[in-house]
Amino acid sequence: MALKAQVLYDFTAEPGNNELTVKEGETVTITNQSIGGGWIEAQNSRGEVGLVPEDYIELSKAFQGAGTTAPTPSGGNVASPDLSFFDAFAPSSTPAQASNGNDPWSVWNADSSGGSNNNNWASKPEGTQTGRSAADPWNSVPQGHPQAYQGPGAEFDEWDDEWDDKSTAGYAESELGESGAIQRGGTHSSSMKISLNKFPGFSKSGPELYLLCKQIAKDKDKLPIYVGEVGPVWAYPENQLDCIVADPKKGSKMYGLKSYIEYQITPSTTNRPVNHRYKHFDWLYERLLDKFGSAIPIPSLPDKQVTGRFEEEFIKMRMERLQGWMSRMCRHPVVSSSDVFQLFLTYKDEKDWKFGKRKAEKDETVGVMIFTTIEPEAPELDPLEVEKKCEQFSRFTKAMDDGVKEILTVGNEHWKRCTGPLPKEYQRIGKAIQNLSSVFTSSGYQGEAALTDALTAAGKTYEEIAQLVAEQPKKDLHFLMETNNEYKGLLGCFPDTIGVHKAAIDKVKEGDKLVATNKITTQDKSTMAKRLSTMSYSLQAEMNHFHNNRIYDYNRVMQLYLEEQVKFYETIAAKLKHAHSQFTTM
Amino acid sequence: MALKAQVLYDFTAEPGNNELTVKEGETVTITNQSIGGGWIEAQNSRGEVGLVPEDYIELSKAFQGAGTTAPTPSGGNVASPDLSFFDAFAPSSTPAQASNGNDPWSVWNADSSGGSNNNNWASKPEGTQTGRSAADPWNSVPQGHPQAYQGPGAEFDEWDDEWDDKSTAGYAESELGESGAIQRGGTHSSSMKISLNKFPGFSKSGPELYLLCKQIAKDKDKLPIYVGEVGPVWAYPENQLDCIVADPKKGSKMYGLKSYIEYQITPSTTNRPVNHRYKHFDWLYERLLDKFGSAIPIPSLPDKQVTGRFEEEFIKMRMERLQGWMSRMCRHPVVSSSDVFQLFLTYKDEKDWKFGKRKAEKDETVGVMIFTTIEPEAPELDPLEVEKKCEQFSRFTKAMDDGVKEILTVGNEHWKRCTGPLPKEYQRIGKAIQNLSSVFTSSGYQGEAALTDALTAAGKTYEEIAQLVAEQPKKDLHFLMETNNEYKGLLGCFPDTIGVHKAAIDKVKEGDKLVATNKITTQDKSTMAKRLSTMSYSLQAEMNHFHNNRIYDYNRVMQLYLEEQVKFYETIAAKLKHAHSQFTTM
């Protein structure tokens, strides 16, 4: 019996990947349901056969394949943390007693409408993971696949799952530039993908969870903050961690039906390489975001490929960006020393990885609870002082976001000109000079070989300059763009991070009223102020970390940029000098 | 009594020149008829008063102002040479006996339809002087004013005529570039303005006038041709003439109502400056074209101004181009030694000028008759050899014309880019870097002054580069364009010059038939072959002169261009190097 299915969402196949492009509303015939891993094989009306994400189609007959769970794209099968510590107050003033993970969100969701996303200055608000998969035409591959990132209770072996490089990051856009190169700028999401419905800690009333919690972190998890020359700072390790992302290798599974790229990551500590696919990076990103997102901006991973064009260039670019992302994480004293990050870099074998993975997914110190681990070695700050600082950071990050975006805009335009019309023009100048030289050669007049040779050389020089111009952006502008792109991503995380702080400030301001209405005790009120102070130290430490990195990064990238620009102009001058010398002095 | 007048042709006023813009069909009121010099003062319906060329309007009442001759724009008051020597054959085989100038053209005009213009590869054929004045919207000033360039019999004192800078050159186009600068390229006519109806010598059957003429030039006018290393060459003077065109001065007449620009021309021979207005250059051009046009390409004068915008820049540009034109004429051994050219450069006083002017206008050795003065010191060439040479020159000049136009096209595009979008882009890059520096300064973080200072300096460097880029074309591309523009003008003359030769070759080929039908004698036939040989030597000498100049000009301009380009890129590299040095090494 031929099984028919209805296509629910557009899906664009990645070339060379045995996938099948389908359109919403199309009817396909199921040819193989036992592919597994969220994929099924289908045939379209033109007889073409290929893989389609199974949650992109709806079987026409009631049918459940063995081992598949037929989830719907709107389902949010996110991790369900143990909520036993959620004894803080909720908007209903009824402490959430739920501790079994049975839809504890509804309590918070009610209050999270409009959430802290209001603080997000990104022009295009990011949807939640599952909400945008079908709507965004740029995302040609399944998003929020229900079988990936199962809750810790699920026994599904992620290590062996099938579809590669799932990206859950809400990238605002990803375009191919005129010149066919992967476009710089605008490819990173400008905000962290903090799913507002996902964690109580990120709902509008989120900070309360921490402000009034009774749980205290274990000593070994403590994150101290010291006051240094520049103000509050994180505790930095003696030797900064770093790693090298290299050697992308194509692997395949499902008897060659699906392929993936595996990267080799070698940390400077062990110098022992581990292998990871993009989906593992994405898993790490999700863990770091859950755990640290309230206190530390966790930038999105590099963009998902739009189409299969320029595959090699794409892999190279992704690797470079994964390297950038990993280096930035390595440089962060809190992130780099976390268990989950260390696991990612230094797991010994598959068993070790699986074990660590489950442990990380069960981590309870996530969301605003991260602040329970932070211990500033400094006197408590006045809430007014906290507010002032917070507003200053908000202003600065907003201004820098504008500045970075401006650089990306002009840089992108410059990139297009340098790789498009400008070299074409130099080429045409070169050709025109050479053509004239050919005409001159045909004159039949004696003794003009010196001129025609010199003209030909000059023409060729301009053709060489055309090539130099076209290739230069890859040598300098590329890095300037990448750095600014990274900062755009980082800065996009601040509205959420700062939003959490602002919500906490607001809650502390309500303190007297809450005491008066018996919602909290006087003791609670002073606890809240103390904890707000802790949050502020955390934000200040993070800002100082950010500033320090920013100064280093911009110094370095500007030096590199200008150095390459000097070389570029000097090379052109030298070439023209040589061309000039070939004309005879009269 | 208010005198009304009907406007016959559109006329656009030059700003600041007391002129009045009028439209065809408009009715104006004459406010002053005694202005003189071809102008009258009129008032339009909006009450605006200004000068209008009197032949652009038609008085509503029969009225003749004292001293005005009410000419019509279509009248061709060209010089009427003494035709007493026109005893050669004509198409009618009736030797033209007309010697009084009473419309001798009709005889030739019949045969000149379609004339040698067929050989002209210019896409836009040039009309005659008077034919296009009203039709061409680019010509905002009166063209072919009947009171200028009166025949030699007229007593009108040209020295004191009123309207300035009449251009009779048929410039194909004249545009203002996007950037507002006077556009390079396309501003010169690509053909000599040989009026086909004006001289029998230029009609299709023209060369016959010379091929069979009995008149022999006086010894003192002889133009010898020698055979040198490169082939036939003109006799070159020991010291090459040159001149400097400088010091443009604004003068005015008619009590300040009309203004004009007078240039100072100082020849290297006398070192004594003479003054000339554009109209005098134009008179010289007409004389040279009439006299030498069949044998020597006489390039058009620089373009007439389109509008009054950028007056200073326009005057500078015109002077530069007049200099280029004069230098080219000075470099030509035949042109520079001619009486009329010498008169222009070395007249002693007004009387001297007037006398010489009339004499030049009465010169009978014009058109193809110039060949009567040419005496090659070389054996007679076989007509087949002549044809081969002629075709070779035709091919070469056509090919070079294409090559030169290609350079002008790409150069013009490059000019626009370098003065328009490119510097704007560098400016925006500079501004973006400086903006980021300002944001960084506002961080409140300690110890980043070194970075922000360096960033500001780098940003300013890019603003300086923007300026360098925008100004560079004036320093190098300008000269490359001007040279190619000059050559475009020169090359545009060759189709006419070569056309005369081709017509002569055709006529000589007809020799046997003409003898058989008793139209010419056997003696005539061999005279024709001999004279064709003379024409060929003339063309070869001219081609060799052209090649020699071409090699010199392109060598020189390419050297200048590349030298300036080297300086340009070196300057940028040095500026960037300095900017780079301001970043701290980490």
Task: Give an overview in words.
- Chains A, B: It is a peripheral membrane protein.
- Chains A, B: Belongs to the sorting nexin family.
- The structure is a homodimer.
- Chain A has about 575 residues and is α+β, with helices and mostly antiparallel strands.
- The first copy, chain A, has 2 domains: about 5-60, SH3 type barrels (Roll), CATH 2.30.30; about 105-125 and about 155-415 and about 480-565, Phox-like domain (PX Domain, 2-Layer Sandwich), CATH 3.30.1520.
- Helix content of chain A is about 45%, strand content about 10%.
- The first copy, chain A, has helices spanning about 105-110, 130, 205-210, 280-290, 310-330, 335, 340-345, 350-360, 385-420, 420-440, 450-475, 475-490, 495-510, 510-515, 520-580; strands at about 5, 25-35, 40-45, 50-55, 55-60, 225-230, 230-235, 245-255, 260-265, 275, 375.
- In chain A, the strands form 3 sheets. Chain A has a 5-stranded antiparallel β-sheet with strand order 4-3-2-1-5, with no helix packed on it. A 3-stranded mixed β-sheet of chain A has the order 7-6-11. A 3-stranded antiparallel β-sheet of chain A has the order 8-9-10.
- In chain A, a hairpin with a 4-residue loop joins strand 8 (about 245-255) and strand 9.
- In chain A, helix 9 packs parallel to helix 15 and helix 12 packs antiparallel against helix 15.
- The longest helix of chain A is centred in the last third of the chain and has 60 residues, at about 520-580.
- The radius of gyration of chain A is 28 Å and the shape is globular.
- Residues about 60-205 of chain A have low confidence and may be disordered.
- At the A-B interface, helix 9, helix 10, helix 11 and helix 15 of A face helix 8, helix 9, helix 10 and helix 14 of B.
